[in-house]
Write a structure and sequence with these properties.
9 helices
Length: 310
Amino acid sequence: MSKHAIAIHGGAGTILKSQMTAEKEKEYKDGLLAALQAGYEILENGGTSIDAVEAAVVSLEDNPLFNAGKGSVFTHEGKHEMDAAIMNGQDLKAGAVAGVLHIKNPVKLARAVMDQSDNVLLVGEGAVAFAAKMHLQFEDEKYFFSQHRFDQLLEIQDKDSMQMDHSHKDMKNKIGTVGAVALDIHGNIAAGTSTGGMTNKRYGRAGDTPIIGAGTYANNKTCAISCTGVGEYFIRTVVAYDISCLMEYKGLSLEEACNEVVHKKLVALGGEGGLIAIDAEGNIQMPFNSEGMYRGMKKADGEYVVGIYK
């Protein structure tokens, strides 16, 4: 039997059922289901893991509930600076972009960097110029604007601090980084991640999402990882690559490696968040040390999960 499988996430943080309406919970779950299905259909039809990951992330970027693409949060200056990355576990090729404006689907730009350039990471205006050369879709500020996202910025704009997507008293409107990992019928794995970053970020801040090995990583020998949380901690602990290394050099299972990093190493530093992971055998882990994480997974054997809370 084919072992193809996919997992997705829509962010982690202080997500409490007591602060979620039934209607909003259904909207989030529907959004996760749509993304899961977008990726799974490609795998089911014999497509590649890299295409499945891209399709799932695009679905989440197009959904204003999640902090990526259309739903991206505001910077201190009232802009939408987006980051994304994608990586192919078969050949370790990767593409990433940071601080891009007006790009409808940053993960598509990351894919173009991987497939159509000799680079791995492009930033800012240069990345946007490359997007124009690749004829990717641009949108104006109105496309990315939403009132509740703007209200989040106004609450903390006069403070020299950033706000994690879900760490707030009013959870009805809080959203998060998105990502996907997948295994295809050819035995190849891939990972992709996309985010609008943190509300009120300044000075061109980028988190772990576009940093290969920190927020995004894939290697057929070990695993594919997409992270979500407070990016600075994930960068400092090189979370995604650390899990891969624990598997490759210490012989840990996917579950053991994920638990070591998410529940021990990150917690010891005060890092909050989670990740999704898959290995070449189709094993999936979705650990998080926060109150909740929007997540979902689907396997060829029929196993299927969509979850939000602990």
